[in-house]
Amino acid sequence: MTKLPTLTAYLDAMQKLLAFILQIPPIDPSTHLRTAFLLRLTGDVMTSVPGYPPQMKELQTLLDFLDDLDQAWSAVLKNQVWDPAAGEGVDLIVPVDAIQPGDPPIRSSPVSQTERTRLRSLLVTGTAGLEEWMAGLNTNGEDYQIAHGRSMLSGDGVLTCAVMD
């Protein structure tokens, strides 16, 4: 559980941690550290979000964060370096002339089967918790996707979100 007063404040703090974790290069011996920290952050988010009261005004912030987390996992599972400008993982390319004879080889270990299993477990249990949390949104009987789209149209009249899958 967290002591931050609102879901938005919590997600802002987690966004900063996510950015920090993604700066860890996917090069041994740091590869497993990046994965371990990202697993920890994922588990914390999945258990902490349902502790906040569900509010429609914070839904887009949550969806944006979950999309960033998804992109982060995509990069980690592919052993990619994080490109903060593009907001996605990119392949690490080491120029041949940068490799010196006698230097230890550059290696990047893949995510282990144990780590993949742990991630899957976090996602299965976390998704169930988030679905229950979303059921508590005040949607006036509408499907949450329709209600969310309608809430995004209020105010300045500009739709600020894409169609949710």
Description:
This protein has 165 residues and is mainly alpha-helical. Helix content is 52%, strand content 4%. The chain is built from five helices and two strands. The protein has a two-stranded antiparallel sheet with strand order 1-2. Strand 1 and strand 2 (88-90) form a beta hairpin. Helix 1 (7-22) packs parallel to helix 3 and helix 2 packs antiparallel against helix 3. The longest helix has 23 residues, at 113-135. The chain is elongated. It starts with 6 loop residues before the first helix and ends in a 12-residue tail after the last helix. The model is unreliable at 150-165 (pLDDT under 50).
Main beta sheet strand tally, sense and closure = 2 strands, antiparallel
User: What structural category characterises the helix and strand content?
Assistant: mainly alpha
| Quantity of strands, as a count | 2
- Low confidence ranges: 150-165
Order of helices and strands: HHHEEHH
> End-to-end distance, in Å?
29 Å
Q: Percent range for helical residues?
A: 40-55%
Strand order of the largest sheet: 1-2
Q: What is the number of helical segments per DSSP (H or I, 4+ residues)?
A: 5
Q: Hey, roughly how much beta strand do the residues contain?
A: under 5%
Rg result: 19 Å
Task: Describe the secondary structure blueprint for this structure.
Blueprint: H1 7-22, H2 31-48, H3 59-77, E1 81-83, E2 88-90, H4 113-135, H5 144-153
Antiparallel strand pairs: 1-2
Helix pairs in contact: 1-2, 1-3, 2-3, 2-4
